[in-house]
Write a structure and sequence with these properties.
Layout: H1 2-16, H2 18-24, H3 26-30, H4 58-64, H5 66-73, H6 78-81, H7 87-90, H8 104-109, H9 128-131, H10 191-195, H11 254-257, H12 270-274, H13 302-305, H14 319-323, E1 324-325, E2 330-331, H15 341-351, H16 390-393, E3 395-398, H17 407-411, H18 441-444, H19 460-463, H20 519-522, H21 525-529, H22 531-539, H23 587-590, H24 593-596, H25 651-654, H26 657-660, H27 673-685
Antiparallel strand pairs: 1-2
């Protein structure tokens, strides 16, 4: 009955709302509200979730949530535990786009312990949305799903191996918590060195887990030989084995004796290991010559066990120098030569060629200490000949080697081309061929040109170019360039000496008509005879005129130069002005000549100051300025007023000049008091009328010229 009513109601509503249904669909009109964001795609199709008259069965949910359906089938996850509870009991929709699809009552009953990730420590109490930011299928129980992995995956995904739920940093596993000792070489390791990718996190870890096996996979525990304090060197106790393990063996690597890690069949004789290193034929057991301390420092006694006794330098020679055969590239002891030539033939041929048996000249003390004495040939070796090798002179042994005076040219080229008649050794020595040490300066006096002065220090080759000894010039011009270009003739000695071209001491300048005296005697020749001075001198009519060298600073109106200047003083030394009748004192002494004697003007009348100074008195006082003025300070007047007929007394003595000499009036001034003090007389009438009548009065009747008027 109820269903029939509902059906009729639906039909009625459909008929009434048919126009609207045609547009939006009748299902949308019957929807209780918008669906959540995850169900938007199915919102227009109610059949996606609802089954008519059966509500929302689980099958409809699992048709879309395929991954969840598979997990339930496999009994995996939380929904597998609550699979008997209908989906609609916990999840509802049509609450709006942002509404939760899980009902509040279901959330209150939910416990995280039913999942694979129970909430403990810091996880307990965190808001669900803090972790559930993405679908469950994309989440898991690994920490890195929520937390940033600061190790970037280097230590694997099992964060709980080191971190706990209570605090991420508190309670971290410490170095001391390691099952493996973390001192020694392990102390320097970082976490990623051993735990990269999450490896080696078990309670028991073998060395080989991290360290590559160096013994071809031997199963022996590494700590039998190696320690955490240092992997190398291995501290295997070798003392109990039959090998004494002496000397260099202590530094040998294990595998150098224990090949292929065979530790049981190791030989104990030298030849068992060193046979391949032998560079000579078999001479018996290695220990006859070699020791474990040093393989190269052998202990073979050559003087007792061989026919060749070693003495002197042979004691320092390495064995291979005598016992190594280059052709076979192998050391040979039994067939080693016993004569000198067997080892030193090549050296001897290179040094001097074949002179027979080496022992005729040499011994074991060294090739540089020969028994042969060259003095026995009549030609002693000394000087630079000591440094010359035998073959330099004896290219073909002693063939055609001359004796006597021609011995030198047998080796040395005659630089004089036969000019020298004397034997070479009369001039040259074996100490040094050039210069000829034996031909001294004193011996040069035997020639046409004795050496004197600077010639004594000149190198022989400077004059004897190319070794020329004859036909050399003896006059100066033969070697020296005439810088005077023939102006003074060819007799250089008339001016110069052998002690040096400069200074010229022999030339008498008086012969030119211009005797050098005073400062001229100290002047170098080129100062006048070179450059601009020389050019002016050569072009001048009077070559002795001062202006040829000294540029004038004033006109010729002052007379010739010698009137003011002389050779005893420098040209620019001050002129003694006292001879003119006008002594230069004070400020005049500091002035330059041209200040008063301008170029092109005659000398002024020296007795008149006004010639140079402007006369400000309009001629009232005459031309004797010096009566009032001095040369040190022109404006400081030193006039003696007593000579004027009006001596200054009292206040008059300190009164400024211009108070009386108004308008630059210096002469013809009245001397009566009234002429200056008329105003004072007028003021006096108001005080003492009877004493100051009108008109001119004689003030001196009552007043005197003291420092006070009264």
């Amino acid at each position: 009955m109820g269903c029939d009513v509902v059906k009729r109601l639906v039909i009625a509503i459909s008929i009434v709302l048919a126009p609207a249904a045609a547009v939006a669909g009748w299902q949308a009109l019957l929807s209780p509200g918008p669906v959540g964001t995850d169900h938007v795609k199915t919102e227009s199709n109610c059949d996606s979730c609802h089954l008519v008259f059966k509500g929302v069965p689980d099958e409809k949910c699992l048709d879309c949530h395929v991954d969840l359906d598979r997990r339930i089938d496999k009994s995996v996850g939380y929904h597998a535990k609550v699979a008997k509870t209908p989906c609609i009991d916990c999840h509802a929709d049509h609450g709006g786009r942002s509404a939760s699809l899980t009902v509040a009552a279901a959330l209150e009953k939910f416990t995280h312990d039913d999942t694979r990730f129970a909430l403990r420590g810091k996880h307990d109490g965190i808001d669900c949305a803090k972790c559930h930011t993405k679908p469950l299928r994309e989440m898991g129980s690994l920490c890195a799903k929520c937390h940033d992995d600061v190790h970037e995956g280097e230590l694997g995904a099992q964060c709980q191996k080191c971190h706990g739920d209570t605090s991420w940093k508190t309670g971290l596993k410490k170095i001391g918590d390691h099952a493996v000792a973390m001192h020694g070489g392990h102390a320097e390791r970082t976490c990623t060195d051993c735990h990269l990718g999450g490896r080696s996190l078990t309670k028991e870890v073998r060395c080989a887990t991290c360290h590559e096996r160096g013994h071809d996979g031997t199963n022996a525990p590494c700590d039998n030989c190696h320690q955490v304090a240092g992997w190398k060197p291995a501290k295997f106790d070798h003392s109990y084995c039959t090998c004494k393990f002496p000397g260099k063996h202590r530094t040998a690597s294990c595998t150098s004796c224990h090949v292929d890690f065979d530790f049981t069949n190791t030989p104990t004789l030298c030849s068992g290991c060193h046979a391949k290193e032998s560079t000579h034929e078999f001479l018996g057991e290695c220990s006859l010559c070699h020791s474990a301390t040093s393989w190269k420092n052998n202990r073979f006694d050559h003087n007792k066990k061989s026919r060749f006794e070693l003495v002197d330098l042979h004691l320092t020679v390495d064995c291979d120098r005598c016992h190594f055969q280059k052709r076979r590239r192998r050391t040979q002891f039994k067939a080693a030569p016993e004569d000198c030539a067997g080892c030193h033939r090549d050296e001897g041929m290179k040094a001097h060629g074949d002179f027979g048996a080496c022992e005729q000249c040499h011994n074991e003390k060294g090739f540089d200490q020969p028994k042969f004495k060259h003095e026995s040939t009549g030609f002693p070796i000394d000087g630079q000949h000591v440094e010359v090798s035998c073959q330099d002179c004896h290219a073909e042994k002693t063939k055609d080697f001359p004796k006597g005076t021609k011995a030198c040219v047998h080796c040395h080229e005659d630089a004089h081309d036969g000019q020298a008649k004397a034997a070479c050794e009369t001039c040259h020595s074996t100490a040094d061929w050039s210069p000829p040490a034996l031909f001294t300066v004193e011996r040069h006096e035997e020639t046409k040109f004795p050496l004197a002065g600077k010639h004594k220090s000149v190198e022989c080759s400077d004059c004897h170019v190319g070794g020329q000894l004859t036909g050399l010039p003896v006059e100066c011009a033969g070697c020296h360039v005439d810088v005077h270009q023939g102006k003074f003739g060819e007799d250089c000695a008339s001016c110069h000496t052998n002690d040096g071209f400069t200074p010229v001491t022999k030339f008498d300048h008086k012969l030119t008509g211009f005797e050098l005296a005073g400062k001229h005697a100290e002047t170098k020749c080129e100062k006048c005879h070179e450059g601009t001075n020389s050019t002016r001198m050569n072009a001048a009519k009077d070559r002795q005129a001062c202006v040829n060298c000294h540029a004038p600073t004033h006109s010729e109106a002052l007379g010739v130069c010698r009137d003011c200047h002389d050779e005893s003083r420098a040209f620019d030394d001050p002129f003694d002005h006292r001879g003119t009748g006008f002594d230069l004192v004070r400020r005049h002494a500091a002035l330059k000549c041209a200040k008063c004697h301008p170029a092109g003007q005659v000398a002024p009348p020296l007795e008149r100051c006004g010639t140079c100074h402007v006369e400000p008195h309009s001629g009232q006082l005459g031309v004797q300025c010096q009566r009032c003025h001095e040369a040190d300070r022109w404006s400081l007047v030193r006039f003696d007023h007593d000579v004027s007929g009006w001596p200054l007394r009292g206040r008059h003595f300190v009164t400024p000049c211009m108070d009386c000499h108004t308008n630059e009036r210096w002469v013809g001034l009245p001397t009566d008091c009234f002429d200056c003090h008329a105003l004072d007389a007028a003021r006096g009438r108001s005080v003492a009328p009877g004493a100051h009548p009108f008109g001119r009065i004689d003030c001196t009747d009552c007043h005197f010229s003291g420092f006070s008027w009264r």
